[in-house]
Amino acid sequence: MKAGGAGMTKAQRLAKAQTSPTPDKRTQSWTQDPEGVRRSILEAARAEFVEHGLRGARVDEIAAKTATSKRMIYYYFGDKEGLYRAVLEAMYDRIRSFERSLDLSALPPEEAMGKLAGFTFDYHAQNPDFVRMVMIENIHHARHLASSDKIAGLNLSILSVIREVYDRGVAAGLFRPGIEPLDIHLTISALSFYNVSNRASIGQVFGHDMGAPEIEGQRRQMVIDIVLRMLRP
What we know:
Mean pLDDT: 88
Number of strands: 0
CATH topology of the largest domain: Tetracycline Repressor, domain 2
Organism: Azorhizobium caulinodans (strain ATCC 43989 / DSM 5975 / JCM 20966 / LMG 6465 / NBRC 14845 / NCIMB 13405 / ORS 571)
CATH class of the largest domain: Mainly Alpha
Keywords: DNA-binding
Low-confidence stretches: 1-6, 8-29
Number of helices: 13
Domain HTH tetR-type: 35-95
Largest sheet: none
DNA-binding region: 58-77
Radius of gyration: 25 Å
Number of domains: 2
Order of helices and strands: HHHHHHHHHHHHH
CATH superfamily of the largest domain: Tetracycline Repressor, domain 2
InterPro entries: Homeodomain-like_sf, HTH-type_TetR-like_transc_reg, HTH_TetR, NicS_C, Tet_transcr_reg_TetR-rel_C_sf
Strand content: under 5%
């Protein structure tokens, strides 16, 4: 018998090649850096969902742009909707983490509330993908948000942050009593969100570029002023 595959027929050599284990760079990447690959999947998925929405996004395209496979994506995220929900969770986790890092409790109430309003405006302006994902989720009646226990807990943190600042302002006589933290949050978010969500339509209808640096700066200061005037006695 000849050594190696010299005595094999062409069909036998082909069968052996198909069954022999070969190194898979994507599998190696996953086992060596699973968190890195997971982040890569979420980043590619975010871009796909933002561009095509939930229904138009293709998992094949997401897998092609990452160091893993479609099968592995399904293994870790369940299905396309599970991956979409994970992207939403990561995006809400990011903005809430930044809010908590502002350390508003160390600032006087008016300065703290102004800083939060300015940060929120800047975050939306610098992260249009977040705005787009929220818009997409509203098309789906927020059913993925409703199914995520993680997001529900994350979003409560901003109300606690606002309540702490607001209560200090009321106690110091700087803010009028009777305003709910949720209403403060909704006002700040609405003013910041609209500047990004309606930028294209406002530009088309009025010829007004809300994304131009000087105009965006003016809008930012207006948002801060509006919030503080709403709160003052």
